[in-house]
Amino acid sequence: MRGNEPRILVVEDEPTIARAVADRLAAEGFAAEIAADGPAAVERARGWEPHLIVLDVMLPGFDGLEVCRRVQAERPVPVVMLTARDDETDLLVGLGVGADDYVTKPFSMRELVARIRAVLRRIERPAPDAAPAGPLRAGPLEIDPRTRRVRRDGAEVHLTPTEFDLLACLVRNRGTVLTRAVLLEQVWDWADASGTRVVDSHVKALRRKLGPDLIRTVHGVGYSLEVAA
């Protein structure tokens, strides 16, 4: 281990699954550690500061949703959730508390690793329109791509990494209606349109944090940021 590998915290109470995921991540060039319950996950995330968390929903102590809430309240960190069933309510709640993506059990290791790499690639890449001159401004919003900070009417708004990327995409294309497929491609690096509810859930989270007046829904099409220039 060279010491500069991306750090992945695997939060899973089933030892066989946890070890299999951690071993595969290590083989793929990541540094991986395991936490087996909710309290241990929050404590390890605080001390180790992972670059990404693979987080099971069902955990002893408290569940993965509460882990995600507590971790995101302290430090924005990408989260890929593992859910035992393709239940829309569970997925939307998980995405709503700050998860960036999800994988439904049973899953292939190849798919999980691909999702992890996609999330990390999104977080690390520079914003296309980020300029040295300063932040982007759109109506009451001020977005600084360099520090990944957002303010509305001068007050800072805490966003998860994916929420920030989604908002930045909408700001760069303000006044233009972006389809869910386009948002999935530009924000999530997904080549297909199978994750439309991921987009919808993150838009709901942005409205909850920024107010309901900025992002317009074009039914059957997608979303548009509607603010004065």
Automatic annotation (TrEMBL):
Residues 7-120 form the Response regulatory domain. Keywords: DNA-binding, Phosphoprotein, Transcription, Transcription regulation. Pfam families: Response_reg (PF00072), Trans_reg_C (PF00486). The modification 4-aspartylphosphate is found at residue 56. Residues 133-227 bind DNA. Residues 133-227 form the OmpR/PhoB-type domain. InterPro entries: CheY-like_superfamily, OmpR/PhoB-type_DNA-bd, Sig_transdc_resp-reg_C-effctor, Sig_transdc_resp-reg_receiver, WalR-like, WH-like_DNA-bd_sf. SMART domains: REC, Trans_reg_C. The keyword ATP-binding does not apply. SUPFAM superfamilies: C-terminal effector domain of the bipartite response regulators, CheY-like. This is Response regulator transcription factor. It comes from Actinomadura fibrosa.
